[in-house]
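LOG
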Amino acid sequence: MRKVWVLGALVLGLLVVGISAAAASDAWIPGVASLAIPGLGQLLNDQVDKALVHFVVGLGIGAIGYGIGWYILPGAWYLVPTLYLAWSIYSAYDAYTVAKDKGFSIGLVPNGIGVGYAFNF
């Protein structure tokens, strides 16, 4: 139970620090989001089609990779985490570069509780 509390406090602390120290460009936020779940950073960048492709490819690597590794080439499923990590890193890099080019920033909205983000064109 302690691990859950520590993890929750860490996530909350990072969120508070990230929101309060909003710089001119917070492009790292979509990058980290896409590293955790491929496609989430693209969704934050308002690229819905690209987000869906990244998410489906990530799911496909896991599902098809383990299926092939388990039934066709036993032992090959050890490569699946490496492929998934490589895809996550590529997805994070793509989300970061797009967010940096667009000037992604995130901060508190002025009229209540919520989070808003804006792109500078």
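LOG (cont.) second protein
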Amino acid sequence: QSYWIDQPRLLREGLAQDFVFQANLKFFRPGLTHLFGGYGIAIATNLPILEISRHRLPSPAETRGALQVSLQTASGPLTVFCTHLGLKFDERRRQSAALAHRVRRATAPIIVCGDMNESPESETMLKFLSDTALSDWGRENSAPTSPSNAPRARIDAIFGSSTLVLKRCAPVE
């Protein structure tokens, strides 16, 4: 919730990079006709952006989505997905299946990252990895990521194509 602070704009300016944002949930205060706050997902990059796609994921509760950005690297195109899955098991199962469908249709190589709201070793995430042929890049450094003030569980993940070479993957402190 931003309380009228345009956080995507502040991040874009602070990072001095291209910044692609997808608003997934918007809040309005009763009696007001304008946006009060909300949240979403974003990808920041210093690489040229070739294409942007915003996808909705199935959700009976809060709106969820997947942001897909194709980037031009020195080695060729790279497709990056960012997502934030739901809070309930059945919801995450449906959302990860819908995301897997999008990933399978994307141009490789691929990176998928975001808040999965469950461990990458869970049944749902293992099925996602199997369905997409991606690898769990955080497996070697399985540092906890949640809650942010005293991390005890790893619910945020970065998955990648086997054709990519991972140099480092770790939570930022």
